[in-house]
Amino acid sequence: MSTTPALRASRYLAISPAVGRRAFRMVYSTRSARSALVSDEDWAQVQQGHCEALPEALRQSLLEHKILVPEGEDEQALVIAHNKAAIRDDDMLYLGISPSANCQLGCDYCGQQHENKRMDDEVMQGVMRRAEQKLARRQGYQHLQIGWFGAEPLLGLASIRSLTPRLQALAREHQLDYSAQMATNGVALTPKLFFELVEQHRVMAFDITLDGAREYHDRRRVTKDGRPSFDTILNNLRGIAADPRFAGCGASVFIRCNVDTRNHEGTLALVEVLREHDLLRHFRFYTAPVHSWGNDAHLGSLSQQRYAEFELELMARLIEAGQAPSLLPKALKPIVCMSVREEAELIDPYGEAFNCTEISQVPAYKEVRFYRLDDVRQPPAPVARPRPFADWNDRIQAGEVPCHSCRILPICGGKCPKHWTDGISPCPSIKHNIESRLTLEMVRLNRQGRLVNRSL
């Protein structure tokens, strides 16, 4: 009598069409973020419920990849439990800091209201008290990571220079690793400043925006007095890449393009500009749909389906340009964003703390006290305010958002709790183009002669 346990195909799968002379399919599990190549014949056995008929080695491999799961397993409950455990066991204290409320640019889709306000000594002292309280309140942290945000963080450079040594000393005192990242418009990011930030302030990841080739970018990302910014940013990027220190500095630079109906064609032109200047070899390029920032900016975006189609075209163009885009996530996303981390928050130049990066300085949320956690200039309240979205995974499990039944939940995490709360679907493009991504990956493997390997 067979002792093989009853198995079935997971609910968290994406499957490519058959490709190649041997008719293999790529089967991708969003529960493991791993994939396997399975022959059409073997996959037909799975579909017919005959998993016991598979070769033993293949059956075990598919079970390890969570492509096959035990009959009766409550997969969604396990995904939610995994997410909660990752949040509970998180060993990184993440603090977002906005050292300035100002920005050189007046981008037409930005929801922030900018003011000539920098973080002063009182707020910086509050930041340090806040960090110390968090480290005293919870044991087990291994990392302290700082995210420098804006408005434009480089307009608060004096505060960055003042806070960083104190934060680094605090990390050493608690025997934590220290690193930082920065989202910047790139206007002031000269090569000299870039290497100061990397070498002295341990900013190891930069997110810099170019919204298409020059003519597209300069229609929307202009200075507040109407001057273009594309050439300034591009020249900064070229200078950073050309500096011999860049190759060994360990920092990552991501070029982001915010896409809507007005500039999606200019995105493809931007790829050619970056290739022409040999920047794709040094920096990673990605796009993101323009979204609501307490305003109606998302109404000018491509539909989710159209954006997913556009993204496939872009990925193919990047492959041709020599940059291999990440077609499939290689990791799960149990912690969807800072809002669900138990202690993470963003502190703005006014001293207000939030557990979301998109609330501060946005007029639409000014009176929505739900999002405000505290004022770091004041003594801590006797009872901490409830953190918005602390129950996010419970809400998913209860079916309050469509993520409840979505097959990409393990690699998406629900994308953006705030957008769901605002009544706007934030579903990522991979929900709509995952099979096409698998096909692109299969074509790439076929060209490399690697379809003979079953497991990837």
Explain the overall architecture.
The protein is an alpha/beta fold. It has a nine-stranded mixed sheet with strand order 11-10-9-8-7-6-12-13-14. Strands 2-3-4 form a three-stranded antiparallel sheet, sandwiched between helices. The mean pLDDT is 93. α4 packs parallel to α5, α6 crosses α8 and α10 (264-276) runs parallel beside α11 (304-320). The protein contains 15 helices and 14 strands.
Condensed summary:
By secondary structure, the protein is an alpha/beta fold. 35% of the residues lie in helices and 16% in strands. The longest helix has 18 residues.
Structural class: alpha/beta
Order of helices and strands: EEEEHHEHEHEHEHEHHHEHEHEEEHHHH
Radius of gyration: 24 Å
Number of separate helices: 15
- Helix fraction bin: 25-40%
> Biggest β-sheet: count, sense, barrel?
9 strands, mixed
**Unreliable stretches, pLDDT < 50, 5 or more residues?**
none
Instruction: Give the termini separation.
Output: 33 Å
In spatial order, strands of the major sheet run: 11-10-9-8-7-6-12-13-14
Beta-strand portion reads 15-25%
Give the strand tally: 14
Overall pLDDT level: 93
The 3D shape can be described as globular
